[in-house]
Amino acid sequence: MLHRASGGSSSPSIAGATLGLADPFAARREVAWMIPAAAAGCVGFDGTVDVASFPHTETMIVLSGALTVSVDGAAALTIMSGSGVVVARGTRLRIAAAAGTRWAFYAATAGTGATPGVTLLDAGAALAPSAAPPANVLIGPAPDCRSFNAYTETGANLRAGLWDSTPYARVSRPHKLSELMHILQGSVDLTGEDGTVFTVAQGDTVMVPQGAPCAWDSRVHVAKFYVVQEAVA
Known about the structure:
Layout: E1 29-35, E2 38-44, E3 47-51, E4 57-64, E5 66-70, E6 77-80, E7 84-87, E8 93-97, E9 102-108, E10 118-121, E11 128-130, E12 145-153, E13 158-165, E14 168-174, E15 178-185, E16 187-191, E17 197-201, E18 205-208, E19 213-218, E20 222-229
Antiparallel strand pairs: 1-2, 2-9, 3-8, 4-7, 4-9, 5-6, 5-8, 7-10, 11-12, 12-13, 13-20, 14-19, 15-18, 15-20, 16-17, 16-19
């Protein structure tokens, strides 16, 4: 668990973990999960930083406060709590954070071929029908799922966007991709390998590594931001 909207406990940061000397938020970054190709956690930052070339591709889901992201030749984006942005590696930009700003992040620290720029993650984006989980893992009827993939970085096997679904349950299985989820609406019970049930509700952020056993049980409509990557330790 990276963040609880209720202010409850979350995963501790990994002592000494760093995204490299070029990381503009190194002093404020709390890394909760890390493999050679990626990392996830939270950042608390206020102030302004200019970055000549962003060192990795980072998805930022704003949990409190506000971020303003400025790129030459484009209108500045202000990202409020409950929205997000993807900053592609190589982007030249200015990031300004209001007092009390905190975000959950997923950073793809390896990969090539990104096009510099920023992509807004908007909870109001139009969704299109998408595939339900396979019938052989479902417990009960198939749900109606929709999604909007806002960002793709082929060289890092990375995608980020918005997804929602009617209630459904599925058996535990190894998670197909490493995934950061930020719940926008509803709640879901995720059951880990040892049988521990994590209830992830509106405003919560959780990280599920690729290959980790995980069962899903949602009894209400669920909407989430997702960042998924084929990234294993």
